[in-house]
Amino acid sequence: MSGLIPLDSRWHDLFENFEHTAYRLHVRDTYNTQLEREPMAQFLATGTADLEWFQDWLTSIREAKAAGRIFRRVRVVSLPLTDSARYSLWVTRYSVEAGEDIRYLARDDAQGLPEFDYWMFDSRTVAKMHWNDEDELLGFELVEDPAEVVELNYQRDAAWHHAIPRAEFAAQYMD
Q1: What SS3 string covers 146-166?
Q2: Would 77 be classed as within a structural domain?
Q3: Which residues form the DUF6879 domain (predicted)?
Q4: Neighbouring C-alpha atoms within 13 Å toward the C-beta of 129
Q5: pLDDT digits over 128-137, tens only?
Q6: Structural domain of 79
Q7: Residues 80-126: pLDDT tens digits?
Q8: How far apart, in Å, are the Cα atoms of 27 and each of 118, 146, 149?
Q9: CATH number at residue 73
Q10: 3-state per-residue secondary structure call for 29-50
Q11: What is the model's pTM?
Q12: Residue 3 above 90 pLDDT?
């Protein structure tokens, strides 16, 4: 494995240059991204939020879908949901509407899955994400060991098989 890579153009290139599929596994209960702090506080206070910061992501999903490329995610969550997970569940409605396929898996049903977040591109390039103690993304590490990439493919398939679609999960767990 290589060292920690900052969130620079190499990070963005992964999303621009994949050919077929981009898959994300979320395993953290909380995320603290600078762009989301105010909207999340707004959501927790009112049940809604301004998502202007999110529009570029939604556009990239739509463009990828139009080009025949797929975004998929599995979010492993603890129950009851944390504030961060409730906010994410609300926000992901817009990602799904844009064309992303997002599924949820209760943490109790996620035994054997990796205990780290990552993006996998075209089943061969893995960007393992690194976070600090304040739940902020620091950078990523490219997983280069073929055996580890194959194992993550198996675990991706298992997570996908057991996870339920966002709409079904939201119907059960949104307040």
Answers
A1: HHHHHHHHHHHHHHHHHCEEH
A2: yes
A3: 10-170
A4: 20
A5: 999 999 999 9
A6: 9-173
A7: 999 999 999 999 999 999 999 999 999 999 999 999 999 999 999 99
A8: 9, 22, 18
A9: 3.30.870.10
A10: CCCCCHHHHHHHHHHHHHCCCC
A11: 0.94
A12: no
Long-range contacts of 58-63 (CB under 8 A, 24+ apart): 58/94, 58/95, 58/98, 59/98, 60/15, 61/95, 61/98, 61/99, 61/100, 62/98, 62/99
Q: Are 73 and 102 in contact (CB under 8 A)?
A: yes
Could you tell me which residues come within 8 angstroms of residue 77 by beta carbon, excluding any fewer than 6 positions away?
29, 85, 104, 105, 106, 107
Structure tokens at 69: 């490329």
Residue 142, domain member (yes or no) = yes
**Rounded Cα gap, residues 172 and 166, in angstroms:** 10
Tokens representing residue 115 in the block: 């205990």
Structurally, the chain folds into a number of domains equal to 1
| Residue 165 tokens, joined | 């679609």
> Per-residue pLDDT averaged across 54-71, rounded?
97
Supply 128's token pair.
Answer: 């393992």
Q: Evaluate whether residue 145 is within a structural domain.
A: yes
Q: Which amino acid is at 166?
A: R
Q: Report residue 132 as tokens.
A: 């600090």
Question: Which residues have CB under 8 Å from 72's CB, separation 6+?
Answer: 21, 22, 23, 24, 100, 101, 102, 103, 160
For the chain, what is the mean pLDDT? 94
